[in-house]
Amino acid sequence: MAEVRVEEEVEATPEKVWELVREFGGVKKWNEGIDSCEVEGAGVGSVRTLKMGGIEIQERLEHTDDIGRTFSYSIVAGPVPVENYLASMTIHDAGPDRARITWQGSFDAKGVPEEDCAKLFTGVYQGGIAALRKALA
Question: Which of 14, 41, 114, 135 gives 109 a disulfide partner, CB atoms 3.0 to 4.6 angstroms apart?
Fold first, then answer.
């Protein structure tokens, strides 16, 4: 199983960052790369359908913890060449008015080299954090 981890700091309190990312169906509010997001269900077990540039991916919320400022999700359908994908985002305190975002995922590559999938998800996480940083400005 491959793992990818991206950690970056942003200039905002952890509470402000968590308020923005905690809503599983609210990813479009901060990630400009998402064309649309529709959610079926509520809370753990809910499934969001993300549309991005002609691609559609379904993700299921697996865990959420407001006190620990973390959530995890899996990919249940989409054109990504992986199986057993599980990702999490955690927001940590990094000092006065600073938060550290840890976005990590694990997966089994399916039909392509593991390194290619790792590069793909590293780019997704870095791009997502860049979009979050812009939304917080």
Answer: 114
Which residues, 6 or more positions from 61, have their beta carbon under 8 angstroms from its beta carbon? 24, 43, 44, 45, 46, 47, 48, 71, 72, 73
CB 102 within 8 A of CB 7: yes
Q: Which of 83, 87, 65 is nearest to 74 (CA)?
A: 87
Q: Which residue segments constitute the domains of the chain, with CATH numbers given? A: 2-136 (3.30.530.20)
The distance of Cα 118 from the centroid of its chain, to the nearest Å, equals: 14
What is the tens place of the pLDDT at every residue in 41-59? Answer: 999 999 999 999 899 999 9
Residue type, position 96, single letter: P
**Token pair in block for residue 82:** 């992986």
